[in-house]
Amino acid sequence: MDETTPQRDRMDGASGADSEVGSASAEPASGPKSVAEGGTPVEGSSLSKEELEQLTSDIVAAIKTVYDPEIPADIYELGLIYKIDVDDDRNVDVLMTLTAPGCPVAGDMPIWVENAVNSVPGVSGTRVELTFDPPWEMGRMSDEARLALNMF
């Protein structure tokens, strides 16, 4: 990666599972600090662990305000968010899907997500990519979504 390419910090996975943020490996004393030593989550990143955790938490909270109009659960708990990437400049990339390719709000929902994430203080910009690989399945829903939909 060259100096002009912003470093990316990533959170993979759908809701309901603990999300992970990449961490730098332990380096010799002269090298970069590990996250446990107060270093950044990704080697060379300008975002501290605390900044990234707070920003990620705020982004997820914003995404949880977006609902599919036909389903009484937010899209995060439905498992429609596959990945959230944050670069050093606080630009956010969101990879998401829909419950079905023919979803009536397919053209609108990515815009709703973009607007929600852009409302988070500290976010510089957002790009939302829609994918159907892998296709969404009901197993991606969190227990919270299952409860809201009476699917237990």
Structure description:
The chain has 152 residues and is of the alpha+beta class. It has a single domain (21-148), classed as GMP Synthetase, Chain A, domain 3 (2-Layer Sandwich). It is built from three helices and five strands. A five-stranded mixed β-sheet has the order 2-1-3-4-5, covered by helices on one side. The longest helix is centred in the middle third of the chain and has 15 residues, at 49-63.
- Percentage of residues in helical conformation: 10-25%
* Arithmetic mean of pLDDT: 81
Largest sheet: 5 strands, mixed
How far the N terminus sits from the C terminus, by CA atoms, comes to: 47 Å
Cα radius of gyration in angstroms: 17 Å
User: What is the strand tally?
Assistant: 5
Shape descriptor reads globular
Descriptive key words:
152 residues, alpha+beta, GMP Synthetase, Chain A, domain 3, 5-stranded mixed beta sheet, 5 strands, 20% helix, globular
Provide a compact summary of the structure.
With 152 residues, the chain is of the alpha+beta class. The chain has three helices and five strands, in the order E-E-H-E-E-H-E-H. The protein has one domain: 2-Layer Sandwich (GMP Synthetase, Chain A, domain 3).
Topology at a glance:
Layout: E1 8-12, E2 20-21, H1 49-63, E3 81-87, E4 91-96, H2 109-118, E5 125-130, H3 143-148
Parallel strand pairs: 4-5
Antiparallel strand pairs: 1-2, 1-3, 3-4
